[in-house]
Design brief:
398 residues; alpha/beta; eight-stranded parallel beta sheet
Length: 398
Amino acid sequence: MSGLVIHSARKLDAEGLVDDFWLVAEGAHITATGTGAGWREAVRSGTDDDAAGLDPSSTDVQVIDAHGHWLTPGFIDLHCHGGGGHPYDDGVDQMRAALATHRAHGTTRSLVSHVANPLASLRESLAVVAELTASDPLVLGSHLEGPFLAAERRGAHDARFLRDPEPEAVEELIAAARGTLRTATIAPELPNALEAIGVLIEADVVVGVGHTAAGYAQTARAFEVGARLLSHAFNAMPGIHHRAPGPVMAAIDHPEVTLELILDGLHVAPTVGALLFREAPGRVALVTDAMAAAGATDGDYRLGGLNVTVHDGLAVLSGTDTIAGSTLTQDVALRNAVTLAGLDPVVAVAALTRTPARVLGEGHRLGRLHAGYVADAVLLDHDWNVTAVVADGAPLPR
């Protein structure tokens, strides 16, 4: 079995900061961790009674000297639509190219998000992701963002394809995903929405509230029946008003709910993002909501059936000022969290790793640099630039 050693790192994960950290991985999982020079003994002796141990001089063992740089768990993105000039909704080759861009920026596990489209197109896209999930363990499945959204809060979703969440349509999309639909966004004020939330939960789908005109009470009711996410907090929903607290306050007041946040400095002011971390500690998941221009250049793009123009990194529906996804990558989200929002690095890294991992369930063993967890890791220099990415115990091309 192939092995990997990373040593002399500044480990940074949800459990804190550890200097002179090392880890040993055999295959896809971390088998041992520690500090100091003990990694050589751990490699040679093995990590259990049946292990023959890894020989650090073997060509099957890769040894990475971190030179004191940051080492974090691999980033997890719950909400993304493309990158590198490639959209997720234009076939498997485009998906793979977009995923490669985000992986180079530290995102080792991804959900593929789908915007509102005709049901036939969504069925096809969900089926493509199901096949990709079977062949690529770094793809965790699908996030169905459309079509069950409020028209007045649709953002960059095509109004022609929005619809109420009739049970038959919901079940049709669940079936198309063949067990790989992980999250779904829904506006709880729509007819049949609460029933649809129940159908999705029965299929082991984590439901998010988003693209909604609902107030505090309606949103709270969705959480009471089982919704567990707030999709991109503050965006495409009413804000916080002193007499109308709205969906964000409903999410803050329900401790079982995780709040997505796009921290690109454009969707939400960094100081407001910092407030969210203070009010919902341990429950904010940084997401990109990236479209094809992430990691690419300004210009003209498509998002679903709509034209998007990107200028100075801001993506808007062409001819409007409506934001159409982001051009964010997760390493930039981390840098913004620390340098713009002023977050403790431990808190910032947790929002990219441990918090989204909890949304997806403990069975995935993601989001920690700890024995028994998947060997996904990101090395970053002191300015938060990615220098190396490891997924399933193997370095990824950059």
